[in-house]
Amino acid sequence: MSTVFKPVGWKVQGLVDSVESGVVQLPDLQRPFVWPKSKIRDLLDSMYRGYPVGELMFWNVAQEESSRTISGATGRVGAHQIIDGQQRLTSLYAVFKGAAVRDADYNSKTMSIGFNPVTEKFEVTNTALEKSADWISNVSEFFENPFKIRRSFKKRYEEARGELTEEIEELIEERLGRLDGLRNYEFTVVEIQPDADKKVVADIFVRINSEGVSLKASDFILTWLSVFWPAGRERLESFARDSRLTPQRASEIAGRTVSWTPINNYLAVDAGQLVRVLVAVGQNRAKLGDAYNALQAKDRSTGFVVPERQETELAKLQAALPVVLKDLHWTEFIRCLAVAGFKSRKMVTSDMNILSSYALWILGRTRFAVDVTTLRNLMARWLFMSQLSGRYTGSAETQLQKDLDRLTAIEGSDSTSFVSTLEAVISAELSDDFWTLRMPDSLVTSSSALSPAYQTYLAALNILDADMFMLRNKVQQWMDPALPATKGTEGHHLNPRKYLENVVGVKDLKKINQVANFAPTDWSTNILISDREPAEYWPALVAERGFSGDSLRQQMFWHALPEDWETMGYDEFVQERRILMAQVTRAGYERLKSGQSVAYPAIQVIAQPAAHVDSDVADLVEAGILSPGDFLSPADDSIRMRAEVTEDGVVVVDGHEFATLDAAAHHAGADNVPGAEFWQVENNEGEPVAIQGLMDRVSQ
Questions:
Q1: CA distance 663 to 680
Q2: Beta strands 186-192; 56-59: pairing state
Q3: Is 250 exposed, middle or buried (0-12, 13-18, 19+ CB in 10 A)?
Q4: Geometric angle at alpha carbon 437, from 435 and 441, rounded to 5°
Q5: Distances (CA, A) of 75 to 26, 59, 72, 81, 593
Q6: Which residues is 491 bridged to in the sheet?
Q7: How many angstroms separate the CA atoms of 73 and 354, rounded?
Q8: Which H or E run contains 349?
C-alpha cells in the first residue's frame, strides 16, 4: 500500500516567506480562528527553549479556487494547502512579518509580543511593558530589523540602568542572538501527496481535528464542502463575512463596488449557521449529524462510499445554495422580524429561532409559492410565537425536523396548505392557557435581556405603537438601533430599589429586579421618581406630565399597571402585572395577526454589524477592570455556570478558553447579549457587579 504522506523539514523563515508569497495557502478547511495572544506567547517561548511545538500538515496540491492566502498575496497559485496547523502558522506569520491578520469576526488585528533578554521571558505586550527599558515591546520589529532594535534596546537599557557591564552586554547579545535564531527553528511538516483522494484528505482533517477539540457537526459539513465543493464553501464564507459589513465597507475590502450585503439589525451569521439553513432547505434535514452522514454516503453493510448517493446529496445542496443566499429572500425575511416588532438583536433571544424560521420562509416562498405579503405576516407571527414559546430552545434540531416533516407531508405544492399547517401550529401554541398561565409564569425572572417573554412584550409594544412610560415618545424610537444611544434609555424600576430595601424590607436583588418591576422610560423620569414610593411619585408624575382620561388609561394598559397599583404590596403588584403584561402581548399579537402592525415602517439597517464588538479579556485585565483569579457568573441567576479569569488573559468556562467575553457568553447560550452585559464579577464586598458598568465607569 503506497503512503499518502511524507515528513519534510521546514524552517520558520521558509514557512513565513512562503505564506507571504502565496506558495503556502490556507484552504477553507478550518473554522476561522486566531489564537489568543497568550498562546502565541507560549508558542514563541517553547520554540526559544527548543521544545517541540507540534507538526504541521500540508496537502501538496494547487487548488486556486478553494484557497485564500493568509497574507492576502495574489497572483500565485499555492503549491501547498494547509490541512493542520492554521493557528500556529498564522501566528508565526503575524509575528515574524509584523502583519495584521483577520480574526473570526473579520476584524484586522496585530499580535504584539514582548521579550525580556535578561529574564528570557516572553509576554503579551501591554502599556507597562511598552514603557519598560527591560523589554523589547514588539518582537515583530526585532525580526524586521534585528540590528536597529538591538542597538535601541541597549541604549534604552543603559539610560535606565546605567552603563552596561561586559557580562550583561554579552548576556544580552547571546539571548538576542537566540531570539533571532528562531527563524531557523525547524518544523516537521507532514505533506500529503498530490495524488491523495479527496475523500482521504477530508477524512484526515476530520480525524486530526476531532482529537482534543469539540467540533460541531457544521464543521464536518464545511470540511466536506471544502474538499468536494470549494466554491460553495467560499460562497457561504463570503455571505457570513458580508453580514458584518456595510456595502461601503465591503466595497473598500473588495476593491470594487458592492451594492448589497446581508448586514442587518439581528444576526451576523457564521458559515456554520448558514449550513443549518442549507441542509434544511436542500436535504430536508434539521439534525446536522444526519446531514453529514448523508453526505458521506457510506453503505451501512459494506462501509464503502456509494458515489451515486454522494453525488445526489451534493446536488441537493448545490441547488439549495443560491436560494438560501439570494439577497431578495434574505431581505424579505429580515423584514418579518421588523413586522413582528423586534428592533434589534438584543430583542431576539435565540439565533436558532431566526435560522429555523428563515428555512421555513424559503420553503414557503419557493416550494409552495406563497404570496410575499401573506408569507411576511405569517412568518412574523411564527417568529413572535417561536420566541414566546421557546420553540427552538433546548432540542432545537428535533423541533425543526418535526416542522420540516409537517411540510413534507403536504401533498403537492399547495400554498394554502403551507399556510394552514403553520397557522395550526401557532394556534395550538398560543392557546388561551398559554396567555393566562404559561406566559405570566415565564415572566418570573430578573433577567430582562435574556427573557424571551419580556422581550416579546416589548415587541408587542412596538406593534401597538405604544408610548414610553409616562412619556409621549414612542417605544419604537427608544429601541431604534439606528439612533445613537443616550444616557438612561433603559427600563427603570417602578418600585425603586432603595424604597424596597429600606421601607419594604426586600433585600434580594433578584426579587427587586423582577422584569415585572421595570418599564421603558427615560433618565429624566427616573430622576423624578428617585427613591420615592409609588404612592408618592405616581400622582405627582401624572399631574406633571398631564395624563388623564383616555391618555392615562392608555398608559396604564400599555405598561400593564393594575388599578391602584401604587398602593399594592410588592408581591401582589408583580404578580398582577405579569398577568397584564401577557394580556398586552396578546393584544400585540392580535394586531399583528390582523395585518396592522405599525412596527414595520420603521425598519432601517444600522451602519454597524449586528455582532457585538467585545474587548479582549486581556485588554480588560490591563485596564484594571478584571484581574487574574476573578470569578465571573451570569447576570441571569437561572444559568448555573462559573468562569475564571486566568493569568494568560483569557476566561475559562467548562475547561474551554475564550479570549473575549462575547465568546464565553455565546458558549453559555447567550446569543443576543454582549458578553460584558451577560457576565458579572464579584467586587471586594462579594457582591456581583456588571462588567459593562465597570467598563462605562473607566471610559467616562
A1: 15
A2: parallel
A3: buried
A4: 105
A5: 15, 20, 10, 16, 56
A6: 520
A7: 37
A8: none
DSSP for residue 31: -
Distance CA 160, CA 162 (A): 6
Backbone dihedral region of 180: left (phi > 0), alpha (psi from -120 to 50 degrees) or beta?
alpha
Tell me the β-bridge partners of 681.
Answer: 632, 689
Contact 85, 57 (CB under 8 A): yes
pLDDT value of position 355: 97
pLDDT at 653: 87
Q: Given phi > 0 = left and psi -120 to 50 = alpha, else beta, which region is 697?
A: alpha
Query: For position 285, what pLDDT does the model report?
Result: 97
- Residue 450: C-alpha distances to residues 442, 509, 539, 678 (Å): 12, 17, 32, 9
What's at 433, amino acid-wise? D
Q: Of the candidates 222, 196, 191, 195, which has an alpha carbon nearest to the alpha carbon of residue 209?
A: 222
* Residue listed under C-alpha cell 503549491: 79
Helical pair 372-389 and 327-339, crossing angle rounded to 10 deg: 60
70: left (phi over 0), alpha (psi -120 to 50) or beta: alpha
Residue 693 near residue 635 (C-beta atoms within 8 A): no
CA distance 320 to 461: 37
pTM: 0.82
Looking at residue 76, what is its pLDDT?
47
* β-bridge partners, 518: 493
CA distances (Å), origin 135, targets 142, 178, 691: 12, 15, 31
Query: What pLDDT, in 10s, does the model give residues 259-272?
Result: 999 999 999 999 99
At residue 389, the pLDDT reads 96
d(CA 696, CA 700): 6
| Torsion on CA atoms 546, 549, 552, 553, rounded to nearest 10 | 180
Q: From CA 458, how far away is CA 558, in angstroms rounded? A: 10
Spans of the chain below 70 pLDDT: 1-2, 26-34, 62-78, 103-107, 206-215, 483-490, 599-615, 637-638, 671-672, 685-686, 696-700
Rounded-to-integer distance, Cα 515 and Cα 501, Å: 17
Residue 388's identity, in one-letter code, is L
Give the residues across from 634 on adjacent strands: 679
- Residue by residue, DSSP assigns 675-687 as HHHHEEEE-TTS-
Question: How much helix, strand and coil, in percent to the nearest 5, is found in the chain?
Answer: 55, 10, 35
What span, in angstroms and rounded, lies between the C-alpha atoms of 127 and 137?
Answer: 9
- Where do we find the cell 429601541? 479
- Within 10 A of 231 (CB to CB), how many other CB atoms are there? 11
Three cell numbers, residue 494: 417602578
As a whole number of angstroms, the distance between CA 340 and CA 385 comes to 10
CA distances from 666 to 349, 453, 658 (A): 12, 20, 10
Residues with Cβ within 8 Å of 262's Cβ and at least 6 positions away in sequence, in order, are 239, 242, 243, 269, 327, 330
Three-point CA angle 511, 512, 516, nearest 5°: 85
